[in-house]
Amino acid sequence: MSSESESDRWLQAVPDGVMLAVHVGPGASRAGVAGFHGDRLRVRVTAPPAGGAANRELVQVLASVLGVRPSAVSIERGGGARQKLVRVRGVRPDEARARLATGGSVDSGGGHH
Q1: Residues near 46 by Cβ (< 8 Å), separated by ≥ 6?
Q2: In this structure, are residues 77 and 84 in contact, taking their beta carbons and an 8 Å threshold?
Q3: Would you state the pLDDT for residue 103?
Q4: Secondary structure of 75-112 in the HEC alphabet?
Q5: I need a labelling partner for 21 at 20 to 30 A (CA). Which of 15, 101, 103, 112 fits?
């Protein structure tokens, strides 16, 4: 029981969806969810961390993996850092856990849609 709460620190339920604690790895060869970095979900993006490109790609990657529109994903904290707090609207915690557990890579051209 305590291991579940420890492993779930990266995901919190909020009234309209979930809040994700994310560690972003910019400049990767392939974009996608890549497990965990400490108690944060690790997401790799191919874009460099300049001019907001990595943040835009992060939103696209999470939207694609979670099956929501990019407009449902917003960076709440950490816009200029690798450690971010990201809100995703319209997805339940159990759905988010299941979809993110499968991880997978997405192409940088916009994902699975």
Answers
A1: 27, 28, 29, 30, 31, 57, 108
A2: yes
A3: 67
A4: EEECCCCCEEEEEEECCCHHHHHHHHHHCCEECCCCCC
A5: 112
The more confidently predicted of residues 107 and 12 is 12
CB atoms within 10 A of CB 11: 17
Pairing outcome for strands 17-25 and 105-106: unpaired
* Residue count (the chain): 113
Main-chain phi, psi angles of 18, to 5 degrees: -135, 160
Read off the DSSP letter of residue 47: S
Query: Which residue ranges make up each domain of the chain?
Result: 2-104
The C-alpha atoms of residue 1 and residue 104 are separated, in whole angstroms, by 27
Q: Tokens standing for 2?
A: 């305590």
Residue 21 φ then ψ, to 5°: -90, 115
In order of 11, 14, 42, 44, 79, the CA distances from 47 in angstroms are 24, 29, 15, 9, 14
Tell me the pLDDT of the chain averaged across its residues. Answer: 87
